[in-house]
Structures are given as C-alpha cells and as structure tokens.
Design goal:
- The complex is a heterodimer of chains A (114) and B (108).
- Chain A is an all-beta fold and 114 residues long.
- Chain A has strands at 5-7, 10-13, 19-24, 31-37, 43-50, 53-57, 65-68, 75-79, 88-95, 103-105, 109-113.
- In chain A, strands 2, 4, 5, 6, 9, 10 and 11 form a seven-stranded mixed β-sheet that branches. A four-stranded antiparallel β-sheet of chain A has the order 1-3-8-7, with no helix packed on it.
- In chain A, β9 and β10 (103-105) form a beta hairpin.
- With 108 residues, chain B is mainly beta.
- Chain B is 0% helix and 58% strand.
Chain lengths: 114, 108
C-alpha cells in the first residue's frame, strides 16, 4: 500500500538554527499539507500546497516557515530560525485530488529545539 | 478557526463497545474523519463519512453523524487491547481541523 514517508524521524537543533523537514507524499497525489502537534495538544494545520504554490496557511505559518516542492517527489518544510516553541511533531499529509476524502499522513518528524 | 471538541479520556473493558464522541462547528464540512494515533506514531486514517450520510459501518467501526446537532461518534464493537490509542475526529472544509483527541484505554 502506498504511504507518505518523512525524514528524519527525529531532529534535534539549537535555537536560532534552520531546519528542513522532508516528506515524500504518495506519488499520484496532488494536495500536500503540513501539520504540527505540540506534545499533548491537538493537531494543528500549518499549510496546504497545490500546483506548486501555497493554497492556504494558518496563523502559525509565519515568515519563519516556508514550503517547497523542489522536485517531483519531495515536499519540504523549512523553519528559518527555530524557537523553543517550535518543538513538536510535524506531520506531512497528502490527498489525491479534489474529493478530499482520504488524507494520508506520514509518521511524523519529532523536532526538538534546545 | 473552527472548533472541534472531544472528551479527553475513555476507559472500557475488553470486549465491550467503545463510543467516542465529537462535536464540530463548521456546517460546511464535506467529510468528517476518524484517525487513530498510537504512542509515538503518526495518524492512521480509520474511516470517514460524507456529510450527507448519517451512518457508515466498516467491520467493527460504526460512524454516526447528526448533522443538525453537528455531532459525530465512533463506535468500536468488541474493543480489544490493541485499540488503546488516541482517537481524533477531524472535519474538512477548506482546511482540516482536528479535535483534541480522546485517549482510549482498554482494560483487559
């Protein structure tokens, strides 16, 4: 069964450093998403991406964040200057098309900012 | 943003049925979902229901949707210890909004 993959599974970084979280969505999917889940809290939407551009973003997704689809397979989330409060699980997800009936999530990257 | 609420904890005995409830606010939601999250793992899509349906059954899982009251429930029949996890409901309008999650503990 096709699946969304994410690397790394755990990233530790120092405050102020840049991090890039990587995702490989399911190959024929068209819509891509990033979510985060701070420990013990709900899953929060960050950004959606379609046709090589951001289609929606939340208030959390400020200028420190950016997304990119550098080639036909990878989908990345960059945090330019990490803060302690960026520590969370980051989930990538993808959907095949407009029906939006099945959103598949990756296993997540745990980001720890020290 | 939209508000999706769930009770935080549920504890049931193995073999009993579990019912996890969820309320949401966005009446324009097209689909409503249930996801399962095991410790340290990602989100696994369990099932979803289209907003013009009121019930969907999938093996041990039954989803009930009361659109008038904006209430969604997930019933797990014959609950097993492997069902212990956090269960999230989610709604999709333009974005996905997740509930706070219900931690289900199954007592052997």
């Amino acid at each position: 069964e096709p699946e969304v993959t994410q690397t790394p599974s755990h990233q530790v970084t120092q405050m102020g450093q840049e991090v890039i979280l990587r995702c490989v969505p399911i190959s024929n999917h068209l819509y891509f998403y990033w979510y985060r889940q701070i420990l013990g809290q709900k899953v929060e939407f960050l950004v959606s991406f379609y046709n090589n551009e951001i289609s929606e973003k939340s208030e959390i997704f400020d200028d420190q964040f950016s997304v990119e689809r550098p080639d036909g397979s990878n989908f990345t989330l960059k945090i330019r200057s990490t803060k302690l409060e960026d520590s969370a699980m980051y989930f990538c997800a993808s959907i095949s098309g407009l029906a939006r009936n099945e959103q598949y999530f990756g296993p997540g990257t745990r980001l720890t900012v020290t | 943003g939209e508000d999706v609420e769930q009770s935080l904890f549920l504890s049931v005995r193995e073999g009993d049925s579990s019912v996890i409830n969820c309320t949401y606010t966005d009446s324009s939601s097209t689909y409503l979902y249930w996801y399962k999250q095991e410790p340290g793992a990602g989100l696994q899509l369990l099932t979803y229901i289209f907003s013009n349906m009121d019930m969907k059954q999938d093996q041990r899982l039954t989803v009930l949707l009361n659109k008038k009251d904006k209430h969604l429930s997930l019933r797990i029949a014959d609950t097993q210890t492997g069902d212990s996890a956090i269960y999230f409901c989610a709604e999709s309008g333009n974005q996905f909004y997740f509930g706070t999650g219900t931690s289900l503990t199954v007592i052997p």
